[in-house]
């Protein structure tokens, strides 16, 4: 892999970052020791295994450097002095936080991950880090993965992170070992000069792209709010601190609700987030905002089988109906709004602001990204994203993956981001917040559990789907 210019959206993410606003996404993966007598690694061996596998992923050897042309641009290039152990490290919890019986390990790992997520990745090196978080050598351990958003969107993060797991790493090793036996089809020579049809097609495509960008830009202007009054915790001044919280929901229970209300599983989860925000605001004594808070809901524009370079994102803008008191009406309102978004498509409307990046020159990203980042608060209040994961059971060095909590970055002026992933029958929710604006983030995590519990309790009896109140959420 040689030199490769950063795609426009990648460049925007690169220039959006500051010390107080790191632009990395991440995940906290929790592993348990394998049941005896199955062999498995301890935390120290997991560190060595992570280092070996991460070093074998070519994308993780790339760093960003400035280029002369295009002006203001940047490129990926191989770090010739790459040392994987500048990126992969082990961190031990204090002795008082290692007792798994009392939930101490998970609470301690989450607290420590929050501190580590505050710190930007080093920009002169390949922009990623992994930490093995452990208590003792023979107990559970967690792996915190940090990837700069310029390096990966959600789909690419999954593809990169998957290379560390036993099942996928072994398949990759076999594929690399057998690559020399495959015969490549000969490619017929062709002229580098574009033909008339290619020139015409490029021109038409460019006109179409500019027209679409103009429409999105107009939608953004119309949707922007100059009056920023809203929920106090969501409109607080950024402090640069980070706090994490995690929770789990029963994926089967979410599916049963979806079969009643319709729509998609993600629609139901967005409704649960809306209900959790309402509960949280009322519990902490906040006045419900005059206007429902807006969520930016990212949508991948990556086509199956397409090259994995460059962020390919758009988003929908969704009003979260926290003013609606009835949980089922909240779900229906979310579904109606998302159906309307999907009918319009991911390349239209104010939520598609990311597609504007493709139409801006590199110099505009370099000098305009901080200004654009500061304006994000006028468009949305909270990021809510879903990250797909492999359905198969995963492990690291024989230690089974128990849970994986995705983490999204906070834009300037944002206090909360919510990320969701489904794995092994559970919906794992990772909450990232400004530590000073949202000191009670764990309460919000509990409110998500309470919201699902109430939905189950209110499930229509004629559906025959009522669950017992002691269902494990």
UniProtKB/TrEMBL annotation:
Keywords: Acyltransferase, Glycerol metabolism, Lipid biosynthesis, Lipid metabolism, Transferase. It catalyses: an acyl-CoA + a 1,2-diacyl-sn-glycerol = a triacyl-sn-glycerol + CoA. Transmembrane segments: none annotated. Coiled coil: none annotated. It is an enzyme of class 2 (transferase). The keyword Transmembrane does not apply. InterPro entries: Acyl_transf_WS/DGAT (IPR014292), O-acyltransferase_WSD1-like (IPR045034), O-acyltransferase_WSD1_C (IPR009721), O-acyltransferase_WSD1_N (IPR004255). The keyword Oxidoreductase does not apply. Residues 310-455 form the O-acyltransferase WSD1 C-terminal domain. NCBIfam families: acyl_WS_DGAT. Belongs to the long-chain O-acyltransferase family. This is Diacylglycerol O-acyltransferase. It comes from Streptomyces sp. 900116325. The lineage of its organism: Bacteria, Bacillati, Actinomycetota, Actinomycetes, Kitasatosporales.
């Amino acid at each position: 892999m040689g030199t490769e210019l950063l795609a426009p959206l990648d460049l925007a993410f690169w220039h959006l970052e500051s010390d107080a606003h790191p632009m990395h996404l991440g995940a906290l993966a929790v592993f348990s020791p394998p049941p005896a007598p199955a062999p498995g690694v301890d935390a120290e061996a997991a560190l060595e295994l992570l280092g070996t596998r991460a070093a074998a992923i070519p994308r993780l050897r790339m760093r960003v450097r400035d280029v002369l042309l295009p002006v203001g641009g940047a490129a990926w290039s191989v770090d010739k002095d790459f040392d994987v152990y500048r990126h992969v490290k082990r961190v031990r919890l204090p002795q008082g936080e290692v007792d798994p019986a009392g939930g101490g390990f998970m609470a301690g790992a989450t607290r420590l991950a929050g501190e580590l997520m505050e710190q930007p990745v080093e920009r002169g090196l390949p922009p990623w880090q992994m930490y093995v978080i452990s208590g003792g050598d023979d107990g559970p351990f967690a792996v915190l993965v940090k990837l700069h958003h310029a390096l990966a969107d959600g789909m690419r993060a999954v593809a990169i992170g998957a290379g560390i797991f036993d099942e996928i790493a072994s398949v990759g090793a076999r594929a690399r070992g057998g690559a020399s036996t495959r015969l490549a089809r000969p490619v017929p020579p062709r002229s580098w000069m574009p033909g008339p049809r290619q020139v015409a097609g490029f021109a038409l495509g460019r006109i179409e792209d500019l027209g679409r960008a103009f429409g999105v830009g107009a939608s953004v202007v119309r949707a922007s709010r100059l009056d920023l009054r809203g929920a106090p915790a969501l409109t607080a001044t950024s402090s640069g601190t980070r706090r994490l919280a995690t929770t789990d929901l029963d994926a089967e229970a979410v599916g049963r609700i979806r079969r009643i209300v319709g729509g998609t599983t993600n629609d139901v989860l967005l409704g649960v987030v809306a209900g959790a925000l309402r509960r949280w605001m009322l519990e902490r004594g906040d006045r419900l905002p005059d206007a429902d808070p807006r969520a930016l809901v990212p949508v991948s524009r990556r086509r199956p089988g397409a090259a994995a370079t460059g962020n390919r994102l758009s988003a929908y803008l969704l009003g979260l109906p926290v003013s609606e008191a009835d949980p089922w009406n909240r779900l229906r309102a979310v579904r109606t709004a998302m159906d309307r978004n999907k009918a319009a498509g991911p390349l239209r409307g104010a939520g598609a602001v990311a597609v504007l990046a493709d139409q801006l020159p590199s110099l505009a990203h370099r000098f305009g990204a901080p200004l654009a980042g500061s304006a994000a608060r006028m468009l949305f209040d909270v990021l809510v994203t879903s990250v797909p994961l492999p359905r198969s059971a995963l492990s690291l060095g024989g230690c089974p993956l128990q849970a994986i909590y995705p983490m999204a970055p906070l834009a300037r002026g944002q206090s909360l981001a919510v990320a969701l992933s489904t794995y092994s029958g559970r919906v794992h929710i990772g909450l990232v917040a400004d530590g000073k604006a949202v000191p009670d983030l764990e309460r919000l995590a509990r409110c998500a559990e309470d919201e699902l519990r109430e939905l189950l309790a209110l499930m229509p009896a004629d559906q025959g789907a009522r669950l017992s109140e002691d269902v494990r959420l």
